[in-house]
Amino acid sequence: MVQRCPEAARYPFAMRLALVAITVSLLVLLATACSDPGVRLAPALAGTTFDRPVEVGAYPDGRTFVAEQGGAIWLVEDDGATASLLDLGALVDDDLGEGLLSVALDPAFEENGHLWAWYFAADEPPRATLARFKVVEGQAGPGSALVVLEALQPGYNQNGGTVRFGPDGMLYLSIGDGSASLDPFEQGQDTTTLLATVIRIDVSASTAANPYVVPADNPFAGRDDVLPEIFAYGFRNPFRMDIDPESGDVWLGDVGASSTEEVNRVLPGGNYGWSILEGARCLDAGDCDTGGLSPPVATYEHAEGVCAVIGGVIYRGDALDHLLGRYLFADFCSGQVLALDTRDGVAIPAVIATLEGAPVTFGRDANGEVLIADYAGGGIYRLEAE
């Protein structure tokens, strides 16, 4: 089990049964729990800072890549020395919650040099874009872009946005409902749009004429009432998603509207409830049919200093044995980093560290150890044993 502070037993958890699954309110936990005494957040990359970092990960030559919301992607040495990998500033509108939101290297990157990015386009019409870029000798240019998919955005926010590859080689992309607050355009339950979904596509042979293929084993392939790209749907703003490299399980944090944040383990064909539900709470108590909805693994309520879930990663490193297999995530405003153990079927997260800033994304270094980017201060931190 995750180590907890000795004082934790003094503080009650607010637990509730919802949608035939247990979810956990972290209101008291987030306000009062102290950090795991065996874990700390240490500055990485010699303390080098960045402008609104949104993505961090391992580059095959031993360096680390860091992407900024404004469109710059850097390669960084352990001593902090930086070199430009790609600058998408001319292609990206980084106003409000937009900009460059996610970057992933192709599974065959060392052979093909393909880098994938999800960003909000600078020109009209308002849209989020999935594009592939070609890296040659450590650099790529915006002119190498192959646009694979575009999602028109009805509003200015909730653009979702993580691109990841699974152990199956497929590309998974989380996409928000593209609106503001309470889904005024009713995208959450609309299966004829890619908004408010996680999609799964095959981009192994992408060309301008055939940008992607829908895998035959996608859960809705062959149906007329659901777009075949959809892997799961019913998300508000799945800003951060990750795939366990061992199990292939898809995990994400779905940012709530007014009161509740949620963590989901995403199963093929699942409907995760937005905008019927926020977390496990019915938005309209008088009209709330929860039949067929997939409940969140865990939820927590808004409180002073608590505002938005940042989905993380399943820990598969070697330095923190007691966290092995746990899902690590954070809250953007409180800075608290939490570990979630669901092996016994009851998800009870515990605070393991606190970042004095705004954690915005999780990544892994070349050894599988966890990196966390601070959006406010611009630093990159490594989770390590004290």
Overview of this protein structure:
- This protein is an all-beta fold.
- Helices cover 3% and strands 38% of the residues.
- It contains two helices and 28 strands.
- A four-stranded antiparallel β-sheet has the order 3-28-27-26, with no helix packed on it. A four-stranded antiparallel β-sheet has the order 4-5-6-7, with no helix packed on it. It has a four-stranded antiparallel β-sheet with strand order 8-9-10-11.
- Mean pLDDT is 89; it is low at 1-34.
Percent helix among the residues?
Answer: under 10%
Helical segment count: 2
Q: In CATH, what is the homologous superfamily of the domain at 43-252 and 262-295 and 361-374? A: TolB, C-terminal domain
Overall form: globular
Order of helices and strands: EEHEEEEEEHEEEEEEEEEEEEEEEEEEEE
Radius of gyration over C-alpha positions, nearest whole angstrom: 20 Å
> Order of strands across the biggest sheet?
3-28-27-26
Q: From the coordinates shown, what is the CATH architecture of the domain at 43-252 and 262-295 and 361-374? A: 6 Propeller
Query: Regarding CATH, which class of the domain at 43-252 and 262-295 and 361-374?
Result: Mainly Beta
